[in-house]
Design goal:
two-stranded antiparallel ribbon; 8-stranded parallel beta barrel; 15 strands; TIM Barrel; alpha/beta
Length: 268
C-alpha cells in the first residue's frame, strides 16, 4: 500500500504514524508535525501525521476532548497543506466520515468502535484508506470480520494491534496477533503507546508505563510490522490526553534511530 509517498512494506523497513493524542491548539499541532517530518526525512522513514479532533471515549465527562470536528479538521487541513503531509484522524460516528474524508488520507476506526457496522460502512464508502484498531476485548478473528465489512465497499484497509485487556486495569501485547494479522495481506500497524496503557489506572483517567515503549517497538519490528504508531508530545506530563503514555517528542529521533538499527541487524 502507498499513501501519497509513504510506502507500507515490512520487507523494506517500517513507516511511522505519529502525532499528539488530541489536537490541543493549532500552533502546537503544526510544530509537532514539522519536527516529526524533519526527523523522518533525516532518517528516510515514511511518515503520516496523526491527531484527533475529538476524544469521545474519555473516562470522565470533565476530560478535555479536543477542539471539535469543524475546527479540528481545519487544523489538520493546514498540517496537510502547509507541510505536505498525509494525515490520519479517527471518527466516532457515521456522520463524521464524509467530513473527515474531505481532509484526511486515512480514517481510523477507534478500538472501542471496531464492531460498529454503521461506522465501518460509512468510512469505507468514502474511498479513503481505513485503519481499523483491534479492540482491547477482541480477537484477530473479530478484527477480520470488521475488515470484511469494510472490504465490501473498499479494500484499502490497515489493521492495528494496540494491546489486549489483562484484567480490569492493564493491557498485554500478544505478538501472535501480529502474525495472524499479517496473514490477511493488509498492512499491519503496531500502536506502541496505547499498548502500555492502564485503563482507568488514575481514577478519572488512563495511566500507563511509557518506559516499555522502546522494548515493545523492538518486538514489533522483529515480528514484522509495516508501521509503528506512536503518540508523542513535547511535554507529555502536561498533555491534555494520554499524558502517561505519549512518547516525549525530544526523544523520538533517538528511539527511531535505535529501531532502524535493530531492524537492519535483525531483518530476515
Amino acid at each position: 500500500m502507498v499513501i501519497r509517498d509513504v510506502v507500507f512494506d515490512r520487507n523494506k523497513g517500517f513507516a511511522l504514524i505519529a502525532g499528539p493524542c488530541v489536537i490541543e491548539n493549532e500552533d502546537m499541532t503544526l510544530s509537532i508535525a514539522e519536527k516529526l517530518k524533519k526527523i523522518c526525512l533525516k532518517l528516510n522513514i515514511g511518515f503520516i501525521f496523526k491527531s484527533s479532533f475529538d476524544k469521545a471515549n474519555r473516562i470522565s465527562i470533565n476530560s478535555f476532548r479536543g477542539p471539535g470536528m469543524e475546527k479540528g479538521l481545519k487544523i489538520l487541513q493546514n498540517v496537510s497543506n502547509k507541510l505536505e503531509l498525509p494525515v490520519l484522524t479517527d471518527i466516532h460516528s457515521p456522520e463524521q466520515a464524509s467530513y473527515a474524508a474531505e481532509v484526511v488520507d486515512v480514517i481510523q476506526i477507534p478500538a472501542f468502535l471496531m464492531r460498529q457496522t454503521d461506522i465501518l460502512v460509512a468510512a469505507a464508502k468514502t474511498g479513503k484508506v481505513i485503519n481499523i484498531k483491534k479492540a482491547q476485548f477482541a480477537s484477530v478473528s473479530d478484527l477480520l470480520h470488521a475488515a470484511e465489512k469494510v472490504a465490501n465497499f473498499n479494500n484499502k484497509i490497515m489493521l492495528t494491534e494496540r494491546g489486549t485487556m489483562f484484567g480490569y486495569g492493564d493491557l498485554v501485547v500478544d505478538f501472535r496477533n501480529i502474525e495472524l494479522m499479517k496473514l490477511s495481506k493488509y498492512p499491519v500497524i503496531f500502536d506502541a503507546t496505547h499498548s502500555v496503557q492502564k485503563p482507568g489506572g488514575a481514577k478519572d483517567k488512563t495511566s500507563g508505563n511509557r518506559e516499555f515503549v522502546p522494548a515493545l517497538c523492538r518486538a514489533a519490528v522483529a515480528v514484522g510490522v509495516d508501521a509503528l504508531f506512536l503518540e508523542t508530545h513535547p511535554d507529555p506530563e502536561n498533555a491534555l490526553s494520554d499524558s502517561a503514555t505519549m512518547w516525549p517528542l525530544d526523544l523520538m529521533e533517538d528511539l527511531l534511530k535505535g529501531l532502524i538499527n535493530f531492524y537492519e541487524k535483525n531483518k530476515i
